[in-house]
Write a structure and sequence with these properties.
single chain; 251 residues; alpha/beta; Rossmann fold; 8 helices; 52% helix; SGNH_hydro_sf; SGNH/GDSL hydrolase family protein
Length: 251
């Protein structure tokens, strides 16, 4: 069995949950008693995402596609994006500097940088990368392209909202509302396409649950990969067994 895991940077960045794809493969192998390969790709929901996913599916020829949606896409308030919108060309230069600083392995995780970001979020605010409706439309088009391939099982996972990036009550309210909009839209899409779907209408962080974070204080730590792999395995197990017609059975 070959699984194309359309995931995010947590599964490819050193020090984050890079153990998760391997653990998922091991669990699937043990349960279904067959070799399992998990291939990870990291889509970004611009208007080119459906075509990129279609190419990956064509190249990898998977049996299962796990399309994972994260609330970062629609609920992370970005100061550089706000500067870009407010200040035009000058803001574009400031935004580029801000993005580079955030991605720097020393500057990004540092306490002064995170304190400065929080201060700017309180005073200037932040813009979001995508609107929930944009993401839902691009997920739907991606799903339709995946489903054109006969014999491929598609399952959609997320968002769950385990990270709270807001620093004000207004930002938190926006995060909750935006996730609810996205989940409602994806529920409709997956229902119409008869695709298994698992998400949280309300962010998980509202319940007080929070995974351990990596050294950059942004991505999830490897220790969380074990619990996350188990959750993904249980979801995929049910989807695969439903497709095959029973527990552990092959087509």
């Amino acid at each position: 069995m070959k699984v194309l895991k359309l995931s995010n940077s947590n599964d490819v960045l050193e020090g984050a949950t890079t153990n998760r794809p391997r653990l998922l493969a091991e669990k699937l192998e043990a349960h279904f008693d067959e070799p399992v390969e998990v291939v990870v790709k990291t889509p970004w929901p611009t208007d080119t995402m459906p075509a990129a996913i279609e190419r990956w599916v064509e190249r990898e020829q998977p049996d299962v596609v796990l399309l994972q949606i994260v609330n970062y896409w629609i609920a992370y308030p970005s100061v550089p994006l706000r500067l870009r919108r407010l200040l035009g060309p000058f803001g574009e230069r400031l935004a580029a500097l801000g993005f580079r600083a955030a991605e720097h392995r020393i500057i990004g995780p540092s306490l002064p940088f995170r304190a400065a970001r929080n201060l700017l979020l309180r005073t200037l605010g932040g813009d979001y990368h995508f609107e929930p409706e944009e993401v839902a439309a691009r997920v739907e088009e991606s799903a339709r392209r995946i489903l054109r391939r006969e014999g491929v099982l598609l399952a959609v996972w997320g968002p769950h909202g385990r990270s709270d990036w807001s620093v004000t009550r207004r930002q938190k309210r926006a995060s909750v509302e935006r996730q609810a909009r996205l989940v409602a839209a994806l529920q409709r899409v997956c229902r119409d396409l008869h695709v298994p779907y698992h998400a949280s209408a309300k962010p998980v962080y509202l319940s007080g649950e929070s995974p351990e974070f990596a050294a950059d204080h942004f991505h999830y730590a490897e220790s969380y990969g074990k619990a996350s792999a188990e959750e993904e395995f249980q979801f995929l197990r049910q989807a695969i067994e439903a497709e095959r017609g029973g527990p552990g059975t092959r087509p």
